[in-house]
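User: Please fill in residues for this 454-position structure.
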């Protein structure tokens, strides 16, 4: 069977690392199976959905390396949802209700007080045509509920336990009793669709074979399976993964700005660091940076996804990025260095990469080599620096120059260890830490070094 999956974000904010988890589970699964990945904007909520966010999501996915095979927008597909709603109405499976939110709340409270589950009592199904006409005349508008198949034949008021099962590709066998649920509202009183029906219609129409999403949707799945069946559509496979939380167990909301993909990108983190963290946290695989999507696809194993929350430490994005950067060849970064105004070559990159937490850090080292620095020379080192300057070898310089020079300076001044090296480093680079000077010195060159030793 060929696999088709979808990532279905609502464009109502910027996506964050928690949203990337389902995007990647779907994308990598499809990639491994040679299947198709659909990016579907769940934008039926026209008030809250914004084009700006949809564009932002596309940009973020591209940066992460997720390339959809097909892009769709629910806001362009209302005719399909209207047709499905009409079909359900005709079959008597979608019925009008006129309760206000306050009335419903009162009924739920009453049911709770009587020790009954707060399940909708299907009062809408008992309305006569006259009652409906009276509500409409009052200006009330119907909201529409789907009649769950959880009752005795021909008698919707006698509920029977009705277990819906599915073999969750992540969590194993799951069961939901439809008699424990209220008939879901599919269309609001203002005529807009809730997420449920459009999602089912699209999953069926787009030939989605696997719906991989967060475990917050488990309860929806039982209902959705019933609706797929009512529409005569084939039911996809489902998989529900654990959700990312911060170390304190807090969920990530769309507004947790610091973890938005956009802000991680702007901070210079590597996309594969973000992807690795989003996928491997809360699984049996060690959280380590995968160098490519193919490598990450090989690390993904649905059976290794834990059933408890996937706690993660945002700092790890930095650690994983640094590991990836340290392993990068010059060819990997050449274009990015050039774009950042770094003219250094392979020798430069090997000299500085261990001291870069992000690729963009290389610019600071390049500026230190090619630009000017403010030498840091302590009063008591003036004499020592002057002596060292006298002993600075003639060019050409190579990796051995630093060793030869400091050996001579040691012989002349009697200094050794930190008191020998640190004043020279601070004078030449203006910093107490940095890449190995044996590599840096030939890049800085004699003229600049002389300049800085004054
Ligand atoms: N738009 C839904 C969400 O973001 C999609 C859920 C699903 O994958 O079915 O939660």
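Assistant: Residues filled in for all 454 positions:
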């Amino acid at each position: 069977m060929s696999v088709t999956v979808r990532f279905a974000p609502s464009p109502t904010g910027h996506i964050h690392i928690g949203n990337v988890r389902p995007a990647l589970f779907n994308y990598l699964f499809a990639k491994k199976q040679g299947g198709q990945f659909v990016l579907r904007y769940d934008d039926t909520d026209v008030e809250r959905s914004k084009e700006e966010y949809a564009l932002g999501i596309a940009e973020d996915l591209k940066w992460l390396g997720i390339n959809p095979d097909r892009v769709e927008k629910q806001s362009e597909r209302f005719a399909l949802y209207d047709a499905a709603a009409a079909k359900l109405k005709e079959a008597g499976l979608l019925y009008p209700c006129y309760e206000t939110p306050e009335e419903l709340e009162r009924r739920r409270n009453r049911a709770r007080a009587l020790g009954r589950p707060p399940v909708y009592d299907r009062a809408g199904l008992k309305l006569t045509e006259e009652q409906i006409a009276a509500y409409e005349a009052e200006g009330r508008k119907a909201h529409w509920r789907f009649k769950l198949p959880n009752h005795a034949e021909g008698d919707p008021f006698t509920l029977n336990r009705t277990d819906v099962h599915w073999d969750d590709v992540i969590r194993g066998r799951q069961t939901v009793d439809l008699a424990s649920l209220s008939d879901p509202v599919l269309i609001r009183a203002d005529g807009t669709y809730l997420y449920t029906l459009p999602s089912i219609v699209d999953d069926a129409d787009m030939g989605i074979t696997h719906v991989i999403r967060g475990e917050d949707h488990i309860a929806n799945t039982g209902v959705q399976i019933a609706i797929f069946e009512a529409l005569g559509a084939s039911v996809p496979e489902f998989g529900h993964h654990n959700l990312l939380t911060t170390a304190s167990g807090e969920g990530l909301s769309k507004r947790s700005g610091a973890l938005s993909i956009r802000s991680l990108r702007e901070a210079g983190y590597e996309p594969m660091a973000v992807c690795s963290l989003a996928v491997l946290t809360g699984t049996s695989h060690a959280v380590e940076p995968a160098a490519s999507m193919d490598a990450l696809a090989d690390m993904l194993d649905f059976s290794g996804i834990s059933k408890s929350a996937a706690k993660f430490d945002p700092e790890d994005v930095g650690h994983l990025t640094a590991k990836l950067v340290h392993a990068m060849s010059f060819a990997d970064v050449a274009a990015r260095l050039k774009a950042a105004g770094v003219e250094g070559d392979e020798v430069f990159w090997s000299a500085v990469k261990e001291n870069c937490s992000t690729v963009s850090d290389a610019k600071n080292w390049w500026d230190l080599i090619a630009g000017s620095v403010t030498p840091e020379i302590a009063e008591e080192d003036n004499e020592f620096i002057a002596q060292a300057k006298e002993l600075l070898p003639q060019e050409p310089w190579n990796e051995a120059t630093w060793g030869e020079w400091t050996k001579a300076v040691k012989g002349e001044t009697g200094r050794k260890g930190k008191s020998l090296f640190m004043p020279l480093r601070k004078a030449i680079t203006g910093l107490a830490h940095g890449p190995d000077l044996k590599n840096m010195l030939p890049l800085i060159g004699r003229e600049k070094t002389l300049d800085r030793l004054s």
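For context: The chain is about 45% helix and 15% strand.
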